[in-house]
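C-alpha cells as discussed.
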C-alpha cells in the first residue's frame, strides 16, 4: 500500500471525524439559534467554493493521471454544485421557498457527485495519486462538503414545518 494513499485516507477520515465532532459540539447548537433560512444559508456557503475543482485541470497538466472524461465529470459536478448552492442562497436571501427545493437538489447532486467521483477514482486508480493542492482539497475540503450536505439535509427535514424566518424575536447571526 502506498504512503500517499494511506496519508490521504487518514487525513480524510481525520477531517471527517473532526468536522463531525465540531458539528455536534458547536455547529448544531448554533444552527438551532438561527432561522431556518439563515441556518441553510450558513451551510450552503461551504458549497459555493466547489469551483475549486477547476484546479483539477492544472493537476492533470502537472501529471495527475485523471482521464479527460473523469476530469470533466469532476469539474461539472462540482461547478454545478457551486452554482446550485449560490442559487439556493440567493433564493433564501429573498425568502423564496424555491430556495428549499434548490437546496434539496444540491444535497442529491452532492451525494451523486461524491459516489460517482469515488467510483471513477477507483476505476482510474486515482486513490492515493493526488499531491499538492489536490491532496489538500481531498483531505480537508471534500469532507467539509460531505458533512455540510448531511447538515443541509438535516435542516431541510427536521425543520420542514418551520417558516423560513421566525415571525418575532431576535436572531443571533
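Sequence:
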Amino acid at each position: 500500500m502506498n504512503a500517499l494513499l494511506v496519508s490521504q485516507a487518514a487525513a480524510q477520515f481525520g477531517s471527517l471525524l473532526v468536522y463531525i465532532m465540531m458539528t455536534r459540539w458547536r455547529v448544531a447548537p448554533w444552527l438551532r439559534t438561527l432561522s431556518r433560512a439563515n441556518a441553510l444559508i450558513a451551510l450552503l456557503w461551504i458549497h459555493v467554493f466547489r469551483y475549486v475543482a477547476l484546479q483539477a485541470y492544472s493537476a492533470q497538466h502537472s501529471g495527475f493521471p485523471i482521464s479527460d472524461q473523469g476530469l470533466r465529470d469532476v469539474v461539472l459536478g462540482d461547478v454545478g454544485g457551486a452554482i446550485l448552492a449560490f442559487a439556493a442562497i440567493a433564493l433564501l436571501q429573498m425568502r423564496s421557498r424555491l430556495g428549499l427545493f434548490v437546496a434539496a437538489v444540491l444535497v442529491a447532486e452532492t451525494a451523486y457527485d461524491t459516489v460517482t467521483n469515488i467510483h471513477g477514482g477507483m476505476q482510474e486508480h486515482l486513490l492515493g495519486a493526488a499531491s499538492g493542492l489536490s491532496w489538500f482539497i481531498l483531505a480537508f475540503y471534500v469532507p467539509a462538503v460531505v458533512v455540510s450536505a448531511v447538515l443541509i439535509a438535516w435542516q431541510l427535514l427536521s425543520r420542514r414545518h418551520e417558516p423560513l424566518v421566525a415571525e418575532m424575536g431576535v436572531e443571533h447571526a
